[in-house]
């Protein structure tokens, strides 16, 4: 009898250990890493404050600040079911913060189209975010309120060979020339592609900063360097140039 009891106990232990194995996990955790380059040349905060980049218009420039907002990271399966990760992420390259975003939301193993929003969509943009308020991320009420999508700042060499500051700030485009504000949506939905997720997954996403100045609008910093937030047409141009800024460098799982 003791021998039989010992065998039963051993079977229970083996079964219990088997149940703990990872092959019974059916949900995946999600991590996004954000890196930056200038037409393939790595860019980090260590490269800031030195005029060393040349944009598509031939102007030499530096980067002194780069912050931008990522939201609505979404996984849509083949049946059209969408899983939206909780939260948003303020990537601050200047201060090396927000370069990694780990979500507490787990999703089932499946095949998904993966996307995210650069900035906030309209529903999200007009909520109140205490942490973003403390980061001075707000847009003035005179321009419709809400929040920035990006702040990219530095200096460039102008046509008179002088060193001049620029502030390439992206927000929801607003025309404030009339009595009533008129808006154009300029948040960007970024599609990273379709993937089968079968394990905990890390997405390595890159921003090519040079693309903001490149296509389809060759950006002339001598003409468009400051006061861009109230410039409706400049904001639309940023939206157009931003369509090819982000790409998926690699996926790990």
From TrEMBL:
PROSITE patterns: PROKAR_LIPOPROTEIN (PS51257). Pfam families: MbnP. Residues 28-225 form the Copper-binding protein MbnP-like domain. This is Copper-binding protein MbnP-like domain-containing protein. It comes from Neotamlana laminarinivorans. The lineage of its organism: Bacteria, Pseudomonadati, Bacteroidota, Flavobacteriia, Flavobacteriales.
């Amino acid at each position: 009898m003791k021998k039989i009891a010992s065998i039963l106990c051993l079977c229970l232990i083996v079964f219990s250990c088997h149940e703990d194995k990872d092959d019974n996990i059916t949900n995946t955790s999600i991590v996004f890493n954000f890196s930056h380059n200038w037409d393939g040349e790595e860019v980090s905060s260590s490269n800031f404050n030195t005029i060393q980049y040349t944009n598509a218009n031939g102007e030499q420039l530096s980067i002194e600040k780069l912050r931008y907002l990522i939201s609505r990271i979404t996984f849509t399966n083949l049946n059209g079911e969408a899983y939206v990760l909780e939260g948003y992420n303020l990537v601050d390259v200047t201060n090396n913060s927000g370069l990694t975003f780990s979500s507490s939301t787990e999703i089932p193993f499946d095949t998904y189209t993966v996307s995210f929003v650069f900035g906030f969509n309209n529903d999200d943009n007009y909520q109140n975010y205490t942490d973003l308020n403390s980061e001075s991320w707000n847009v003035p009420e005179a321009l419709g309120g809400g929040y920035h999508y990006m702040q990219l700042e530095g200096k460039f060499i102008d046509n008179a060979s002088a060193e001049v500051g620029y502030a390439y700030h992206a927000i929801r485009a607003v025309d404030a020339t009339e009595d009533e504000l008129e808006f154009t949506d300029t948040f960007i939905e970024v599609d990273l592609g379709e993937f089968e997720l079968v394990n905990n997954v890390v997405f390595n996403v890159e921003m090519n900063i040079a693309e903001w100045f490149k296509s389809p609008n060759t950006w002339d910093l001598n003409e468009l360097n400051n006061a861009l937030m109230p410039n409706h047409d400049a904001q639309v141009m940023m939206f157009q140039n931003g369509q090819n800024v982000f790409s998926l460098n690699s996926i790990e799982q």
